[in-house]
Amino acid sequence: MALFDLPLGELRTYRSESREPEDFDAFWDKTLQQARAHELDARFEPVECGLSTIEVYDVTFAGFGGHPVKGWLRLPAGTTQPLPLVVEFLGYGGGRGLPHESLLWASTGRAHFLMDTRGQGSGWDRGWGGAGATADPVGAAPAYPGFMTRGVEAPENYYYRRVFTDAVRAVEAARSHPLTDASRTAVTGVSQGGGIAIAVGALVPGLVAIAPDVPFLCDFPRAVTLTDRPPYREIALFLKTHRGRSQEVRRTLSYFDAVHFAARGRAPALFSAALEDRTCPPSTVFAAFNAWAHEDKAIRVYDFNDHEGGGPFHEAEKVRWLRSQP
User: Which residues form the signal peptide (predicted)?
Assistant: First the structure.
């Protein structure tokens, strides 16, 4: 796929036309207050998986609505003192997989917490990991297959309200372990995971760094009309059937647009974008990056890549960059 979006010079100054709801902060304050009415109840069960350099814990904590959410905590073997913490969120359709997967961050000497995404975990074709272990027990109105339109009739019912809340609680759960240093917490993720990380970057205080790669869930008004690839296409196909509901859908999505969370970003950030990315078009990524509020920010651009972005090359970039953070 050749370049299809704005030229790089225009991307660097592009601003989203997404309109922020007046009660955006109140909506999220109330949502998190309701979630914290439930005990976090974070439980860490050791897992024997044959690894000699990494210790793995099967984690369960209370997310949105007090619902049980799963994750993995990985630590370098023999850890006795609290370590810097990386909390990671998964791409669309992916699950936490098996305990011996995703060993990069623990191999750098950090604690690594990987959150399972409720209702997902059957997306091997997307390359975002293995099976999931977390149900989404909340029902919804009619929706297009996938997750993008579940509960989209109102922000209170929308699927990503539950996911973003789970993500905030995941950071709280990870920080509660005695071998993690809560004061040195970074968050990261690719695609959907990057969009979730941006939301967490606004909703969780005291983070030292955030690294969203080719993030999804950014600049909904442009994304839905610019690309015909899923998952954004799910929204267009829903509206193709549910004619006349565009305004209410746009209103719901505005509460979950990473652009508005980015305007509240409170930590140094390293973004990535790929100029041939038709899944998360580069202008939508730059919309979030350009809105990121913290002055210490950078973006790595991969000129000839699609949604794979920088792949392992960018993983190495993140490792180097995170070492430079306090």
Answer: none
